[in-house]
Specification:
Blueprint: H1 11-17, H2 28-42, E1 50-51, H3 54-61, H4 65-77, E2 81-84, E3 88-91, H5 111-120, E4 126-127, H6 137-149, H7 152-156, H8 166-178, E5 188-191, H9 193-205, E6 211-216, H10 220-228, E7 232-239, E8 242-243, H11 245-251, E9 257-260, H12 274-287, E10 291-294, E11 321-326, E12 338-341, H13 344-358, H14 363-372, H15 376-401, E13 415-419, H16 426-435, E14 438-439, E15 441-442, E16 455-459, H17 464-481
Parallel strand pairs: 4-14, 6-7, 6-9, 9-10, 10-11
Antiparallel strand pairs: 1-3, 2-3, 5-12, 7-8, 11-12, 13-16, 15-16
Amino acid sequence: MDRSAARAWTPDGLDGVLAGWTDAPGPLYRRLAGALAGAVRTGDLAPGDRLPAERPLAAALGVSRATVADAYDALRGAGAVVSRRGSGTRVAGLPRAGLRPADGRVPGGTGAALVQRLVDGPAETISLSVAAQGAAPEVRRALAGLLEDGLDGLLAGPGYHPGGLPGLRAAIADRYTAQGLRTGPAQILVTTGATQALALVAQLYVRRGSPVVVETPSWPGCLDALLAAGARPRRVPLDGDGVRVAGFRAALPGAALAHVTPTYHNPTGVLMSAGRRERIAALCAVEGVPLVEDLAYDTRLWDAEPEPGPVAAYAPAGAEVLSVGSLAKAVWGGLRIGWVRGPAPVVERLARLKALADLGSPLLDQALAERLLPEVEGVRAARSAVLRERLALLESLLRAELPGWAWERPAGGGALWVRLPGGADAGVFARVALRWGVEVVPGAATDPSGGHDAYVRVPFTFPEARLRALASRLGGAWAAYGPP
């Protein structure tokens, strides 16, 4: 490899070479890897050229550090680059066809890790990428009732309801009205899970290079839906009340969309206060920026104080607020039912996009969801009691096995946001933990700025035996990592 004329690429310089890379299909890391491979083939990148480090390139491209790491892994697997300690990552030559990693798997670290875990199915590895439980017992009873007396009318129709089953739309609308947000069925679009809801919103509002205001940290799956539409994130930190007002205000001008998770934020578990909800809704109205609030993580743990209503309930007249919900956390992830609540004209536009995508979500799932919605609060209460027990157990296990780890008890959700001590690198620890049978989601996957590199998300949704095994494996991995 002749390095006499090799270049050391800056993140901004490489960004110019990769213009348009997000327009390709497929996961973000594969788009980036493909664009870099294309630059090697065209000669824009020559053998010996040194590529930027992961973190600064991620910041320049507006993606997670894990996306860049996965792209580099794919290029290494294809023989296009080599990485050596002290000299970084350099172009080696033309990539082999396929650009698949050496082991043929989808690299993890962002939403791709969750996809790979679902594809692989159950394994001995304990994956911390999914904080979910099995189905609530009410699902079985509702299914039995549907089979007994609810199918005739459903099966008599043609089966196409792009906007959602009318009865389910009405039930979801009634739920919002009961929360203090007056809603009619025309303001509801039923989707195949909250992920599709967010993807449709991004498709409607975001174009390539559109600035989008997001919280940091943010869950990779949510970020990927926005990035896939071409978003350029403007990241705003959180505090104990939610997204910080000053940073949010500064990031809004010219933005195409703003995204928040006000109710039990993922991964931190923060519950945005009522006052903060009112302020951000007002700021979006003043700037004319549509706001999407993700309410899918609505698992409340404590009843110490009232839970604020949706941000949309605090919005002034004329504000464009879209509320995304789901039954995944409250009832069961296998029931792929989500929804968007918003102004009727906007919901109609989203419904057209939904119809183009799949002509509507499965009706049997929707009919089952319609029967379950009246029982949701009881299901949530029962699940919260179980989660409180599991949270207390995990906390006691972590204190015994890993006394230096620190966290704040969350207001809701299903995971602890844990800070590793002594300036530890959670990304490096994740690689060690995988050898001990634990798939860790490091903080860098939620925040490419480096501000949360010492954090990991640890779900407490597992049964007791699994939690005990998890704590033991994490303890062993931490000892092997060699805490600083």
